Amino acid sequence: MNKTININLGGTFFHIDENAYNHLRSYLEAVRATLSPEDSIAEIMDDIEARIAELFNESISNKDQVITITRVKEVIEIMGQPEAFDPDNEDPQPNAHTAQSQHKAPRQLFRDEENKYLGGVASGLGHYLGLDCLWIRLIWLMLFFISSGTFFMIYLLFWILVPAAKTTADKLRMKGEPINISNIEKRVKEGYEKFSDNVKSVDYDKYGNQVKRGSNRIVEVVGNLLKGTFTVLARLLGVLMLIFSVSALLGLAFGLFSAGSLEFWGQADLIEYYQAISLAQIPFWALLTIVFLAVGLPFIVLFIVGIKLLIPNLKSIGWPAKISLFVLWIASILALIFFGAKHASFTSVNGQFQREIPLPITKNDSLTLTMNQSTLSARSLERDDNFVIRMDAENNPVILTNNVRLIVRATPKAQGFIIVDSYADGASLDEAQQKAMQINYEIQYTQGILELDPYLTTALENKYRDQHVEVIVYLPTGSVLWADYNTNSYHRNTKAYNDLLDSGYEGHYLKVMDRELKCLDCASNDHDEDSKDPDDIKNINIEIQGNIKTKVNRA
Length: 555
Hints:
Layout: E1 4-9, E2 12-17, H1 18-34, H2 41-59, E3 66-67, H3 69-79, H4 98-102, H5 121-129, H6 133-146, H7 150-161, H8 168-175, H9 181-200, H10 202-257, H11 270-277, H12 284-310, H13 319-345, E4 349-359, E5 366-371, E6 387-391, E7 397-401, E8 404-411, E9 416-426, H14 429-437, E10 443-446, E11 449-452, E12 456-459, E13 468-476, E14 480-483, E15 509-512, E16 517-519, E17 540-545, E18 548-552
Parallel strand pairs: 2-3, 5-11, 5-14, 8-13
Antiparallel strand pairs: 1-2, 4-9, 6-7, 7-12, 9-13, 10-11, 14-15, 15-16, 17-18
């Protein structure tokens, strides 16, 4: 069982057995002996030890933490024998570099700070791509102007994310050269020779300074060009900001502070509509002021910034004014949130009120279904959830909405009936049910004709609480239904409502079955096509029950 020794190699601790340690020490001493005193022995040996430490780290696993003599020999084969690089050795082994060439790694991307102008990004890319760094710099400069400066941000990302080649091993990886004793020694010598030549060569310094001054002039010209471009863009942006902010402020002020006197949506002005929807009990003028501050203050700031861009030397409004504007804006936003939440609390619960109305229709009868066209409903015969304010017969303002849903269903009962469900929102269930009970909705039946109001109304003081009505007409099985065309938008329902009356059945005679309506005057499989006008239907025989037939003549 071999003895284990702890060593520090290249700043990393390793566990190595005694035989491997002796072999490694002999190898390093042999390498040191081949170096001449002027070769900067200490730096070369530090780089060699760092490379050996990297190779050891590659072979360490959880199961095998100890460096054995086998691994030491493999590393020595990669690094090369000292006699292969001894200048006094006139007959080196022909296969001395075989393992080294096989272990040659691909190029890695680093920043070359030895040949840098701005971070060494371009020179590092030149090594990685195998191109002269001059071409890389020209490409970056061209992309900078083509992209209006966007590629400068990409250059900064390269500068931040790509590491610099600090060590000799990093510099060899950057150029794609194998990391062995020969290349490490060569690289260190080149560095010292370059430094020595720079110190001794005054002409080279003069040339370097000229190149540096020339590059500085190029940078200065580019900087002035960019500065002028950004100045022009800033002026244009300032003009656009002024035009936009002034237009927005004028439109906002005109719209808000003249709203109370403008005719809006029909016969009532905006204040009455505000009274119909306002549940938070905030005065109309206060709401307008809060909205102006919340929406207008950002445009005021935009106006100030626009002037500042146009006139850079303009005196600032000062921190007290800035803080005051910010506090006012935050206060207005919080006020809108508070009143919005308070408004929502008044409509958090939905209430229902239901009433049943008898319908004298039996299985031998027919029913005509139509929407009542009155003065109040003249605005539209289409179902929607918007509302308007109208004056009723007693000249009182009422909220009117066409939010009425029509549903037709079959019933096994001998006589039909109608269910009217009224819905409204409220702060509590009791309040919501009270609001639902205060909905006015009328139905008229006369000699086989059922007229439904296409709208519902409620008093203005009840406020708009999403009031809506569902009218469910139950017809006995075997009865016949004829629906007017004006009912179409009111019974466009999904399957969840179990509505038997499909869109497109208007203007046809429909026999009520258990789960469907059977068209009596439609072409087969053709009820989805456009319906005929009812005035064109003449002398239609409708079989009601058994041998009883009713002849309907429509002029």
